[in-house]
Amino acid sequence: MRIRVSGKDIDIGEALQTHVNQELTESTSKYAGRPTDATVTFSRDGHSHHCEIFVHLSTGLTAQANGAATEIYAAFEQARERMAKQLRRHKRRLKDHHKERPNPVDTVPAGSFVLAPFDEDDSHDDEEHVNGEAGPTIIAETELRVPSLSVGEAVMQMELAHAPVLVFRNEKGGAINVVYRREDGNIGWIDPRIESGGAPQSQG
């Protein structure tokens, strides 16, 4: 497995890189089956060190975990343990997923935008917020990949990535769907179905 270790405004020594490679390889080989590559990023906020791990699996799914501690090694260990817990939790489902998918998950490109909230006290008209056009100001723009998954796979991907929401292309029908975490602890599923001119329906 290829592992890329980097730091944001922080020096990463050779000893830490060796430690990360050894420990993360051991953890993922136990639970993930066939991980292809991983990225480990360290950063610092005051006296706290942060570690973010992404592990990309051969079938196209991605697992994510974060850790924070005063010591950089402890931050990595916390993130590594959380990663191992997620992979252990989904071990059987990952094996089934790998058997059912000899080829990686297909993805399509999409734009991702960060928008500024409207300021009710702002004296300027909305039309002046975005190059003379109505709408909120775009703070940042990035590109992401929207995966083609079944609903079950989408829920697993959301849980592996520890994300509150996941946008995906439903393999059954090809429509863009959304799964998300509900406040009651259940998972919501939005499946737009335009039938006979009717309105989109939400399931979950």
Automatic annotation (TrEMBL):
GO molecular function: ribosomal small subunit binding
One GO CC term, this protein: cytosolic small ribosomal subunit
Quaternary data: Interacts with 100S ribosomes.
GO biological process terms on file: negative regulation of translational elongation
NCBIfam families in UniProt: yfiA (TIGR00741)
Protein keywords: Cytoplasm, Translation regulation
Family from the record: Belongs to the HPF/YfiA ribosome-associated protein family. Long HPF subfamily.
Species this chain originates from: Rubellimicrobium roseum
Residue span, Sigma 54 modulation/S30EA ribosomal protein C-terminal domain: 135-188
Name of this protein: Ribosome hibernation promoting factor
Places the protein is found: Cytoplasm
Ranges where the record places region Disordered: 92-111
The protein's role, per its UniProt record: Required for dimerization of active 70S ribosomes into 100S ribosomes in stationary phase; 100S ribosomes are translationally inactive and sometimes present during exponential growth.
Stored Pfam families: Ribosom_S30AE_C (PF16321), Ribosomal_S30AE (PF02482)
